[in-house]
Structure prediction request, 753 residues.
Amino acid sequence: MAYLDHAATTPMLPAAAETMAGLLGQVGNASSLHATGRRARRVVEESRETIAAALGARPSEVVLTGGGTESDNLAVKGLYWARCGVDPRRRRILVSAAEHHAVMDTASWLSAHEGAEVVWLDVDEHGRVAPAVLSAAIAKAPDEVALVSVMWANNEVGTVAPVAELAEIAHAYGIPFHTDAVQAVGQLAVDFGASGVDALTVTGHKFGGPLGAGALLLGRDVEVAPVLHGGGQERDVRSGTLDVPAIAALAVAVEIAVKEQPERAERLSELRSALVSGVLAAVPDAQLNGDPAFALDRRLPGNAHFSFPGCEGDALLMLLDARDIECSTGSACSAGVARPSHVLLAMGHDEARARGSLRFSLGHTSTDADVDALVAAIGPVVERARSAAQ
Amino acid sequence: MKVLAALSGGVDSAVAAARAVDLGHDVTAVHLALSSTPAALRSGARGCCSLEDARDARRAADVLGIPFYVWDVAERFGREVVEDFVAEYAAGRTPNPCIRCNERIKFAAVLDRAVALGFDAVCTGHYARLVDGALYRSRDAGKDQSYVLAVLAPWQLARALFPLGDTVKADVRREAAARGLGVADKPDSHDVCFIADGDTAGWLRSHLGSQPGPIVDARSGAVVGAHDGAYAFTVGQRRGLKIGRPAADGRPRYVLDVSPVTRTVTVGTAADLDVSSVSTGRPTWCGPAPALPRDVVVQLRAHGEAVPASVAAQADGGLRLALASPARGIAPGQTAAMYDGDRVLGSATIERAVAGRSVEDNS
Prediction:
């Protein structure tokens, strides 16, 4: 089997799985005051320090959450509520038009229910928000902007944003900046402090950690309103009993992923380049989506994204699946129906190109054989899918 | 064979797919998304459009260990089934959307795509039998669905698989339970799947708007009532007429005719409903076209009685069916399915019903 869907989720690193399994049988609520509670607390705090060190944050800046979607919700809603609580004029949320739904739909919900005004920041043909676009959007009414959210690396087409530069623009106006870095950690160098962002979303299962464990890195002086109310854990902004085994495994995974990132990025870049040239050789009219420059500050090393003219993405997916090659189309609705990717549409592509697209994403277990299997299959599969689309 | 099994989320299609697997076929499941805005939960016994049904279908595929995908046919279904349904009612006709769906979606759009993607056949949970390419009624007479399949041409039947045709429904449920399929006890679906609350008249009103008109007595020509839209009435209907004045003979009144142009609904007695012959549009034969005229058994409604008839070709390419005994509640737009015993010969859409006590009266 060729698993080419690491951007969806990647296998757990054996060390992380071992850590998690080892702790699953142990009792301990990290909020309890007795010895058992203190043991659990110690695991959590050591993990927090590990996560902080790996990602260039202070331990107090690590808010542990249930994953990427929760972190995005906390950042966008939390910053919005905190900012307009201080000054009710701050109603504008500036969001890239190519964001993940966890950010987009949160912003849209605030617009529908909480009086927010969402400003979708245009992206270029590669899916990138130009600094000038952000400057212009803020400059229209700087006092009315609650927050800016632009993802570090796009989950569909792999385009890397100039995050530090964008954060600096927001900061010039005193506006907090959030970035969803779910796809970036483990593939790119991610340093929270150096990037200058105020809030940064990470999730474990994209870099070999467990599902359902993530964090929002949140600057010490950044105010957010809580989304989950309760026992006051996690700086009083994210209540809930901490999942000690998952947090420990998250820490193990992030430490390994960050340590091995430079080497891994190089290896994935090579594999990805082979994949791209192999697919383009087999299907000469396939269109590579996203940034054609493969430098690490331009595109995720493990990402390849194509449109196959005359094909439906879901037909391609099914035909590849039948040949044990696993990849993904753009977004699917809850029933599982493929929808044209909003990212490709935002990049200016038409609906046909968006519908006929596939993402192949590589990760820590990817091999040459995976790429070879895809390159061997893609030609006949595209031919078959074309005949079905007539 | 490579088989594409359409899973609605109900018990029948799940057991049909299971049997296809047992037969040694290479089976892939698809759930057809028929609505672009599916409801989260099923309402009552209606379904195949909700997310809950999609989940049930997915779970059945999991249990069977076969690949599962959702195919989005909402746009095509909306155009070819839902819009057709509205247009037919607006024209004073009585359509059968399940027949349209089989004819234009399941065994057309879906079958075409399946074949193009390398499948040999489409498998469904319909209660009908295929023997050497010919279509027959199912063993379970109460569940028989050969009527809604009588629109399929030989090339479509050649690529169809109906594994439930020789089994009664109760046994299908038992088999589902034995196979560990969670849908074993799921209620049967009824009515029109895209009308969630089952209120066809209300649904049509929301699509066609209010179109008030008179209700006229067939014998006297007197206006005996008023209605809000002729489309809400179907020939043979008795309930919901709200006729203020009782008929002179004291007998109940039934809808005899619906004329959308004049917005007139004509009512009469039960005896006035009797139809002795019908003329139809061009037929679709499920096998080689039979020599005409000939004697057949004809079924004029989904769960209607089968009536002996003689069928003859008309000059316009349609058919004329002379019924041996009068049938009631026959409306234009309905499908006349013709049988030779249990074997389905074909079908045609009724264009006109001719009233009369019997064939002799009419000759």
Remarks:
- Chain B is about 25% helix and 30% strand.
- Residues 358-363 of chain B have pLDDT under 50 and may be disordered.
- Chain B touches chain A through 17 residues (CB under 8 Å).
- Residues 97-116 of chain B form the longest helix (20 residues).
